[in-house]
Design goal:
- By secondary structure, the chain is of the alpha/beta class.
- It is 35% helix and 25% strand.
- The chain has ten helices and 14 strands.
- Strand 1, helix 1 and strand 2 form a beta-alpha-beta unit.
- Helix 4 packs parallel to helix 5, helix 5 packs antiparallel against helix 10 and helix 8 crosses helix 10.
C-alpha cells in the first residue's frame, strides 16, 4: 500500500523506521507544517520518501497515495480523517481515534459507505503475546473477579506545564490529559477482554487549566445479563505527573495473571493458577513494539479484510463510548 505520513511528531519519529521496514508498505509522502519542514525533509532523506508536503490537499489529490496515517494532535483526528475518507483514501488513525464517540461513529459510517478501510493504531491488539493472553491464558483464570491496570509516566512536557506553558499533552481542548493518553491503553486492554462495562466512573485530579493530570477509571461489569449488581470491578489508573511501576493484574477464581510494565506492550506475563507456583509465560520477541501493528495493517489492506476491520472498529467505538461515559461522570 502507498501511504502518506501526516505529521512529524514523536510517534512518527518512532514509527517511520518500522513502517519503512514493513513488507507491503511504500511511503509516498510526509506532510509537515511550515515550522516542521526541515524535520520532515530530514526524515524524507533518511527513509527515501519521495515527497514532502505542507498542503494536505496535495496529499489528498495525489492518485498514488492510497492510505493516510494521521499522527497529529488528538483534536484534529476527526477533521483530517473525514477529509481523507471523502477524498477516497483509506485511513490509519493514531489513538485515541477521536475526542468523542459521535465523531468516530461518523467516520465509521463514512468509511463503510465508501467501502474504505479505517483503522485505529492500537499496538496492543496486534501483539502475538496479546493473542496468547486472550485465546489461551484468560480462560485458565476461570471467572474474572477483579482487574487493575496502572500506566503512570511523568510527561516530558510536565515541567513546561508547571511553568504555565500549556502544550497539547496538557491542553484539554487538544484532547490532552491522562484519560485520553495513558488510560486509553488500559481501556483498550480491558474492553478487548471483557467488553464494554455497564457503568463507568472517572475520578481525577485536575491542573490549573482543568486538565486531568492523574485519574482512575472505575469500570463495573454485571454478575449476569440485566443485573444491576457488579461482579467485576476494573480499576484503571494513569498519571502524567508521576512515575510508578506500570502493571496489569487479572484476578479470577482459578488464579491470577500479572503483566509487568504497561499493558500496551505486554513484555512480561506471569501466570499463577490455584494450587500451583507462579510461572513466567514464554513470549516470542518482536523487532519493535509497532512492527506487528503495521504488518497487520498491510495484511488487512492487501487482503481487503473488511470483516476483521469492522470487528476492530466496533471495539474502538466501544472504547470511545466508554470514554464519553467516563467524562460525563467526572468528579
Amino acid at each position: 500500500m502507498n501511504i502518506s505520513i501526516i505529521g512529524t511528531g514523536k510517534i512518527v519519529q518512532e514509527a517511520l523506521p518500522v513502517i519503512a521496514a514493513t513488507d507491503g508498505i511504500f511511503i509516498r509522502s510526509i506532510l509537515a507544517r511550515e515550522h516542521s519542514l526541515q524535520r520532515a525533509e530530514a526524515m524524507a532523506e533518511t527513509y527515501g520518501i519521495p515527497l514532502v508536503c505542507t498542503d494536505y490537499e496535495a496529499v489528498l489529490t495525489d492518485d498514488v497515495v492510497e492510505v493516510v496515517y494521521i499522527a497529529l494532535i488528538n483534536s484534529v483526528h476527526f477533521s483530517y480523517a473525514m477529509r481523507a475518507l471523502q477524498a477516497g483514501k483509506h485511513v490509519i488513525l493514531e489513538k485515541p481515534a477521536c475526542l468523542f464517540a459521535e465523531e468516530f461513529q461518523q467516520l465509521v459510517e463514512e468509511a463503510r459507505a465508501r467501502h474504505l478501510m479505517l483503522m485505529e493504531a492500537v499496538t496492543l491488539l496486534h501483539l502475538p503475546s496479546f493473542k496468547i493472553l486472550r485465546e489461551e491464558l484468560l480462560e485458565l483464570l476461570g471467572t474474572i473477579r477483579h482487574v487493575e491496570c496502572n500506566y503512570s509516566q511523568r510527561s516530558s512536557r510536565y515541567d513546561a506545564y508547571l511553568r504555565g506553558e500549556v502544550l497539547p499533552a496538557f491542553d484539554p481542548e487538544a484532547g490532552g490529559g491522562a484519560l485520553m493518553d495513558l488510560n486509553i491503553y488500559n481501556l483498550h486492554f480491558v474492553l478487548s477482554l471483557l467488553g464494554r462495562p455497564y457503568r463507568a466512573t472517572y475520578l481525577c485530579c485536575r491542573g490549573f487549566n482543568e486538565v486531568d493530570l492523574t485519574g482512575t477509571a472505575v469500570l463495573e461489569y454485571p454478575e449476569s445479563q440485566g443485573s444491576s449488581k457488579s461482579s467485576v470491578i476494573a480499576l484503571l489508573t494513569s498519571s502524567k505527573t508521576t512515575d510508578a511501576p506500570s502493571f496489569g493484574l487479572l484476578q479470577g477464581d482459578c488464579g491470577w495473571l500479572r503483566i509487568d510494565g504497561p499493558v500496551s506492550t505486554l513484555s512480561s506475563i506471569t501466570l499463577c493458577l490455584r494450587g500451583h507456583q507462579p510461572r513466567q509465560i514464554p513470549l516470542s520477541p518482536v523487532s519493535h513494539r509497532l512492527a506487528p501493528e503495521f504488518a497487520a495493517f498491510a495484511d488487512l489492506f492487501h487482503h481487503q479484510d473488511y470483516e476483521t476491520m469492522n470487528q476492530l472498529l466496533d471495539h474502538s467505538l466501544a472504547v470511545m463510548q466508554t470514554v464519553d461515559e467516563l467524562r460525563k461522570s467526572e468528579r
